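Record 1 of the preview.
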Amino acid sequence: MTIPIPAEDPRHVPNRAVIDPSAITENTRAMGTLLEEQTALMAVVKADGYGHGMLTAARAAIEGGATWLGVAHPASALALARAGLDAQILTWLFEPHTAKIVLPEVLGSGVDVSVGSPEMLALVSEAAREADRRARVHLKIDTGMGRNGVLPWQIRELGAAMREDDFIQVAGAWTHLTSADDPEDPATDQQVELFDSACAALAEEVGPIPLRHIANSAATLTRPDLHRDLVRVGIALYGYPPVPAEVPLRPAMTLTSRLALVKEVGEGHSIGYGRIRSTDRPTRLGLVPIGYADGLHRTGSDQVDLVVRTESGDHRAPQVGRISMDQIVIDLGPDSDARAGDQVFVFGDAGGDPNGPGAATAEDWAKAAGTISYEVLTSVSGRVTREVR
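->
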C-alpha cells in the first residue's frame, strides 16, 4: 500500500485552508428545511469533501441531518465505511482493474454501488460473489449527460440481468442533470421525462424501485418536484449555492497566508510576468507566498482584492500583476502600515470587525478566472495545510 508522506512540515508553511465544520453542519441543516419528511439528504463528499477534508465534511453533514454520503471512488467509500459513520454510502465511479481489488471489501462493508453499463454490473456481481454478500445497486441512467450511465434502450436488458442475479439487489435508480443551474433550460424537464419512462421500464423488470434520485444542489434549491426519495447535495453544503438561494449558506473554507515582504516602489514600477500591471503612483507592495501551485488560478490574475490584517485593522488590497507559481503581489497603498508577517485573507471569512472590509469569496475568484466555485475550492492543493476549527 502506498502512503503519501508530506515533504514539508505543515508548521513551517504560512498558507492555511481553515475549515469550519459548523458551517457545513448549518448549511446541511438549511438545505434539509427544503425537503419533505420522506426525502433523504445525501451529502456529496467526493474530491476530499470538495477540498475541505472528506471525513471532516462527512461528520459535519451527518450532524446537520444528512443520512447518506456520496463519493465517486470506491476507495473513498471504503475509507468512510472504516470510519464507522452513521450514514449509508453510495459510490459510482470505478474501472475494471481497481474494481477487482477494492469492490469485494466495499460491498462487504455494506456500501451501495452504482452501475452504468452491463460491464460494470458484471464487475459488481463478481465482487458480490467473492464477498458472499448481495450488492445493493443503484442503476445510473444516462438521460443526456453523456457520461456514466446506461442508455434508456438498455434498461430492460440490464433490468432482466439484475433480476436473475441472486447477488444483485436493486436499491435505486438515478440520473444526473446537465443544466439544473439554469432553471429556464428545458433540458431538465426533458431529462426528467426520459428518467421517469426508464424507471417505469425498469420497474416492469425488477419490481418497485426503493429509491429514485435526480436532484443535485441546484435542483434541490429550485425544483421541489424533483426531490423524490433522495437529493444529492454537494457545493451548497460548502457554502456556495449554484443558483440564487434564499436559504442561508455560509462558506466553510477560509484560505489565508502571510506577508513575506513589504517594499516601497515608485510610479511606473512594473509587476510580475508579462508586465501586465505597473504602479500608477508611488505605493507599497506586499509579497504573499501563495500562487497557482497552491490553487490560485493564473487566469484570475490582477482582478481580486485580498484583505490584510495590520496593526491598525483590516484593509483591502488588490492583487496586482500575474499570479506566479509560488507568490502573488498585492498593492497595499502608499499609506499602509502593513509589515512582513501580517495575515492575508485570500478568500473566505476574515472575521474581525463586522463593519470592516469583507474578504473575497471563492465565487469572486471563480468569476475572475472564468470558472466555477467548485474548481476554486478543489484546486487548493495538498501543499496548503488544512486546519479544522
